[in-house]
Amino acid sequence: MSYQINVAASDISFDCNDGETVLDAAERAGFALPYSCRKGVCAECQGGVVNADGVTEKALLCCVRPAANMTIAPRKIEKRERIVRKKLDASVFRITQAAPDVTVLQLRLPIGVRAKFRAGQYLQVHLDEETVRNYSMANPPHQSDSVHLHVRHVPGGRFSDGVLKELAVGRKLRVELPYGEFFFRDESEKPVILVATGTGFAPVKSIVEDAIKRKLARPLKLYWGARRRQDLYLAELARKWHDEGHVEFTPVLSDPDDDWTGRTGLVHRAVLADHPSLAEHQVYACGNPAMTSAARDEFTRAGLPEDEFFCDAFVQTDALEPAA
Question: Total structural domains in the chain?
């Protein structure tokens, strides 16, 4: 059995199978809706569902499974090539401790296999038939024979505090990719502001290194927020980009060390201090959902068009089960 999904104020419609989510059905039909975690936590996919009385109610479209024909009013919907994802058995190639609570995990794909993804997207690590963990790919798309993941340690996390401790070079992990609407939009010529907190730096790294590889001329400004200096675990790389003229880098600490002379406070407020108007910019924000939510609200009030804000909120899976 299937149901028809109509999109309000448009001529778009698509079928949704019984038990299928609206988000999955839209992707299958070649349409892209905003989303991030796909678990009903981050609210990036929040849109409207029109009820029988014609009233539009808010709903998380990654969770809605229709039981009848329905009309939705998503924040945005775009025609897109049908997504082709791959499930692969990747081998652990290198494990590096980037900070006390951040591990860089490099996985090699099977010989002769390449993973097609866009800079900024993420993959899923399959722990079993039903349990997955989402991690952004920190390497740029041209490095398609491997993937680099920045894993933040979460006490009690099934992957970060469990599986990761037992990993050794050569161990295989089942991964599926690509996922995510957080990727660099080539069609714009606007200057770009990149905002990250914590390991939200991972997809930003992919975006910057992709832009460097492709010699893109658009101005890039990176604001990386953390609590302490040690949390900026690849700050030297970001400074190298800055010194070479690829990106303007501004680190921001909310609980600075005594000898810190740089910017302090909330990272999105540092952006606003430097850019009272964001009307002519495009913003990519990734990391703590409190930051991405505040950035969306305050940046749009500062003139940023809603459709020029792209975000990936890193949610702790322990909202539903032990986090990774």
Answer: 3
